[in-house]
Design a protein that fits this description.
Aconitase, domain 4; seven-stranded mixed barrel; six-stranded mixed sheet; 24 helices; 32 strands
Length: 758
């Protein structure tokens, strides 16, 4: 299969959109937003689809699928169950998650090649076997490589990483999904998603001085919160849009994942055309201009936006102050001017122990140029970074170009260490031996996510997220209380000076991008002779067996394994860090299940009460395995926005493997709820959120009425307390008829195989 976004492929995609939108316009008889055009232009059945935002489910035909090397393992293992000889849509795999940050790029990359060779061989042979493109370790981070090579305005791409919306900066509707969703699309099935509502963000004015695109999304996260974008597409519009570069737009859409948004998108404009031309795709820029009517909202939308968006947020870029968010949640945002006071009041460690810039969110040529400007100012005064300072290039292309043009040298001159072109410290792959576990410390990053233990697996680390230029400045000041807009530094000559705001930087290199070292492997024309071998004794990879089908009976007398308190992300349910090595071996990985979740029954993470043995404090995975050995299914209880964060489906697959029948919460994050459905686990919510408080450690729960499971009809849960007293509570679900079929079959993949005749 040709996996490239060729001009022929792109134009055909536009023609399909036109045909679908002709039908949609006849149905709606009104102007369309950009998000509606991109979404509904990819409908599998434009005439018959139910189109009720926030309620109905729609079937879409994505143009592309993208995998990173960790979640991609499980997605490919699931796809292998489909029996197909080749993927049905262009698909790529990107090796970016398994490279640890230790001592520097070359050494860290070689360590990854040595330590994960088995996984890389599996991924590369799978790509050759099934017609997928393979990007070797060191080539770059999935989202940056996708932006540079495959994304195009109007493209619908799904990726097995929550920050897939990065490509929305190039006008794509890019959506993070679980691996089971991706496997379905790879197998030729449409992708099912709840029809999103629309949030419009109206941008006016222009960014200037210290303010950067990162401040737009940090501010928006503070307004909408981590759950404010759930089941919604965020669409940016207004005169301020054109003032932001394509890669700046990508920074903004990348972090839409932190708001729980289905996707984020900007309209096609000249800034996107500039980027396409600079990345050797001038024909796609021409096509986008030709089909611009598909890639921008209808004029009436901007004239009267209240008629077309469910919510509108106004942002005046000219008045926007640099912002910083954290710790422990990406929506804990404030202007930089307010941080010093808050840090003192809250007792945050004032010393910045490390500053990190780059990654998929902020490593563009423009970003690195503005960072280099700050570094050069410091060097001119004889200063180095006070904090440990590290740079993560988003791709080999970015690294090679900033090496050629001098930005890298400027950053190294103040003490910066360049890491591998990989995720590294952004996702828990930072081996930080010098910081003792649990020691409170503050770091500043330009990354996208800052949950506890997210970066270095250290519970004491507090991550504050800012723009990359602000992070560089704070590495020079060395403290959270340093504000470069108001505070001075002291040069090597003993004289005080203030950093100047970074000068406007070129959005693309004046001399074009340097591609750097070749690291792409195209699939052969015929992969039928390629073997994909998985050693049965491997600790890293494990062939999947189908889940058992539902036995037709109600779930009765089930113990509560865990009752998660407060925020419970996928990082809490299935921690990353050292566990990343087992993402292709579900059994071994499942020993991490709920290790990060604070259990209200024990008031500490990762432990629970064993109802069989009576043991009061025991690791949760051990309890689950004992229950499973006795043929007992169990239930997990969660709070609001349960499962937010990473798209990792392992947070659904491990519970399924170890015996979960259902997860009951006050509310779910979108991707995790979908992942549970795909794996045959019932995702249920309390009809009365206060019922969360009724569940006790020794309760047994029964879910009755499963034989008549019906869309929109609540289920009844019988709660039997240790005293023998019973309570009945109602549980809601969002399952449609197709998803109910998944449950009955045991999983979505089982159902697909059943429908295909085995």
């Amino acid at each position: 299969m040709n996996v490239d976004s060729t001009p022929q492929f792109v134009e055909e995609a536009y023609k399909k959109m036109e045909r679908n939108l002709e039908v949609v316009r006849n149905r709606f008889n009104r102007p369309l937003t950009l998000a509606e055009k991109l979404l509904l232009g990819h409908l599998d059945d434009a005439q018959g689809a139910e189109l009720d935002p926030g309620e109905s489910y729609i079937m879409l035909n994505p143009d592309r699928v993208a995998h990173q090397d960790v979640t991609g393992q499980m997605a490919i293992l699931q796809f292998m169950q489909s029996g197909r000889s080749e993927v049905a849509v262009p698909t790529t795999v990107h090796c970016d998650h398994l490279v640890q940050a230790r001592v520097g790029a070359s050494s860290d990359l070689q360590d990854a090649l040595n330590e994960s060779s088995e996984v890389y061989q599996f991924l590369e042979s799978s790509c050759r076997k099934y017609g997928m493109g393979f990007w070797k370790p060191g080539s770059g981070i999935i989202h940056q490589v996708n932006l540079e090579n495959y994304a195009f305005p109007g493209c619908l791409v799904i990726g097995t990483d929550s920050h897939t919306p990065n490509a929305g900066g190039l006008g794509s509707l890019a959506i993070g999904v679980g691996g089971a969703d991706a496997a379905d699309v790879m197998a030729g099935l449409p992708w099912e998603v709840k029809y999103p509502t629309l949030i419009g963000v109206h941008l006016t004015g222009e960014l200037s001085g210290w303010t950067a695109p990162k401040d737009v999304i940090i501010y928006l996260a503070g307004v909408l919160t981590v759950a404010g974008g759930t089941n919604a597409i965020i669409e940016y519009f207004g005169p301020g849009v054109s003032s932001i570069s394509c890669t700046g737009k990508a920074t903004i859409t990348n972090m839409g994942a932190e708001l729980g948004a289905t996707g984020d998108v900007f309209p096609f404009d000249e800034r996107m055309a500039t980027y396409l031309k600079s990345t050797r795709r001038p024909e796609l820029a021409e096509l986008a201009e030709k089909y611009k009517h598909l890639l921008t909202a209808d004029p009436e939308v901007e004239q009267d936006p209240a008629q077309y968006y469910d919510r509108i947020v106004e942002i005046d870029l000219s008045k926007l102050e640099p912002h910083i968010t954290g710790p422990h949640s990406p929506d804990r945002a404030r202007p930089i001017s307010a941080l010093a006071k808050e840090a003192k009041e809250e007792g945050f460690p004032d010393t910045v122990s490390a500053a990190l810039v780059g990654s998929c969110t902020n490593s563009s040529y423009e970003d690195m140029s503005r960072c280099a400007d700050i570094a050069e100012q410091a060097s001119a005064h004889g200063l180095n970074a006070i904090s440990k300072f590290m740079i993560t290039p988003g791709s080999e292309q970015v690294r090679a170009t900033i090496s050629r043009d001098g930005q890298q040298a400027a950053l190294e001159a103040i003490g910066g260490m360049v890491l591998a072109n990989a995720c590294g410290p952004c996702i828990g792959q930072w081996r930080r031996d010098e910081m003792p576990e649990g020691e409170p410390n503050s770091i500043v990053t330009s990354y996208n996510r800052n949950f506890p233990k997210r970066n270095d697996a250290n519970s004491g680390t507090m991550n504050f997220i800012s723009s990359p230029e602000l992070a560089v400045a704070m590495s020079l000041g060395g403290s959270l209380s340093f504000n470069p807009m108001t505070d001075t530094l002291t040069g090597s000559d003993g004289k005080e000076f203030m950093l100047e705001a970074p000068k406007p930087a070129p959005e693309v290199p004046p001399n074009g991008f340097d591609s750097g070292a070749e690291s792409y492997v195209a699939p052969p024309a015929d992969g039928s002779g390629v073997d994909v071998n998985v050693n049965p004794t491997s600790t890293r990879l494990q062939i999947l067996n189908p889940w058992p089908a539902w036995d037709g009976k109600d779930f009765t007398d089930m113990p509560v394994l865990v009752k998660a308190a407060g925020k419970c992300t996928t990082d809490h349910i299935s921690p990353a860090g050292a566990w990343l090595r087992f993402r292709g071996h579900l059994d071994n990985l499942s020993d991490n299940m709920f290790l990060g979740a604070v259990n209200t029954f024990t008031d500490e993470p990762g432990t629970g009460k064993n109802q069989l043995s009576g043991e009061q404090i025991q690791p949760i995975p051990e309890i689950a395995r004992e229950y499973k050995a006795q043929g007992m299914q169990w239930i997990a209880i969660g709070d609001n926005n349960y499962g937010e964060g990473s798209s990792r489906e392992h947070a659904a697959m491990s519970p399924r493997m170890l015996g979960a029948a259902a997860v009951i919460t006050r509310s779910f994050a979108r991707i995790h709820e979908a992942n549970l459905k795909k794996q045959g686990v019932l995702p249920l919510t309390f009809e009365d959120p206060g019922d969360y408080e009724r569940i006790e450690a020794d309760d047994r729960l029964s879910i009755i009425g499963l034989s008549s499971l019906t869309p929109g009809v609540p289920l009844v849960c019988v709660v039997t307390h240790e005293s023998g007293e019973e309570e009945r509570i109602n549980l809601r679900h969002t399952m449609n008829p197709g998803q109910i079929d998944w449950f009955k079959a045991g999983s979505a993949m089982n159902h697909m195989k059943n429908m295909a005749g085995g």
